[in-house]
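Section 5: illustrative case.
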């Protein structure tokens, strides 16, 4: 059945890239409306749906735009919503960028569970997208494919060239419990050597050891939550990105060195196949 939350819940934090303070509120959504972001700091509180057609930018995070309404760095919040199988939700924010929390989806999972996830009474279930044949996207060095499967599974290979990290691999069948325990706590990461360059570009202004795993020359600068935390976070990002199809997915996603841009290329192809009835709706 379609799900939303029972009550509202609030959180105040800072944006990872802007460093600005932002207030976020999760509110119950109506059946068949999906996930909708509202900018309550702007006149008339304009909104943008969490859908693939509203993607504005994918550099160092995913941004949506609908006219003057821009929402940045949405992937961690969307991963929490999708990982818990919430279909309809209103997300009110007081700034252009969502709060980063601790760099993972953990705080958002806690907030949504505190608000109590409930089914819409008397509402028809929302059809999932069931993959019937392979769909893929690829670049010279990165690849992603989704194969037929009776559940939602993600297998990811991460490889960081010229780093002591090397390769990491993880594979999970995505359920709310698995997401909460194994994926949601995994934090975003970056190289210490890149920090100054990013800040010169106006990025990572809110980043710190409190909300990101920082990779040094020969070791991590903070403790890991999982020995393969980096690849788990890539799976987290991928869940958030593919949620922009607007439906739950039944398929096995296999990704090699994929990032937001390639993830969303796959999401677009899946959405296009649904629109032209090449996949069930």
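Designed sequence:
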């Amino acid at each position: 059945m379609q799900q939303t939350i029972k009550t509202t819940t609030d959180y105040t934090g800072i944006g990872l890239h802007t460093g600005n303070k932002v207030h976020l509120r999760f509110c119950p959504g109506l059946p068949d409306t999906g996930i909708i972001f509202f900018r309550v700091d702007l006149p008339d509180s304009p909104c943008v749906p969490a859908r693939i057609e509203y993607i504005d930018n994918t550099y160092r995070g995913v941004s949506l735009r609908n006219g003057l309404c821009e929402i940045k760095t949405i992937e961690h919040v969307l991963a929490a919503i999708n990982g818990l199988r919430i279909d309809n939700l209103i997300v009110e924010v007081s700034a252009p960028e969502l709060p980063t929390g601790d760099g993972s989806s953990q705080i958002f999972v806690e907030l949504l569970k505190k608000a109590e996830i409930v089914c819409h009474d008397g509402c028809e279930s929302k059809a999932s997208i069931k993959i019937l044949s392979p769909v893929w996207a690829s670049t010279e060095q990165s690849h992603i494919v989704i194969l037929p499967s009776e559940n939602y599974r993600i297998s990811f290979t991460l490889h960081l060239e010229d780093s002591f990290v090397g390769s990491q691999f993880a594979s999970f069948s995505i359920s709310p419990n698995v997401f909460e325990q194994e994926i949601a706590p995994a934090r975003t990461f970056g190289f210490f050597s890149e920090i100054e360059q990013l800040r010169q570009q106006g990025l990572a202004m809110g980043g710190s050891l409190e909300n990101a795993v920082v990779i040094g020359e020969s070791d991590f600068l903070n403790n890991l939550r999982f020995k393969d935390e980096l690849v788990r976070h890539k799976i987290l990002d991928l869940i958030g990105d593919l949620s922009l199809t607007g439906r739950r997915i039944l398929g096995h996603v296999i990704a090699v060195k994929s990032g937001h841009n390639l993830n969303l290329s796959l999401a677009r192809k899946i959405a296009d196949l649904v629109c032209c009835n090449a996949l069930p709706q």
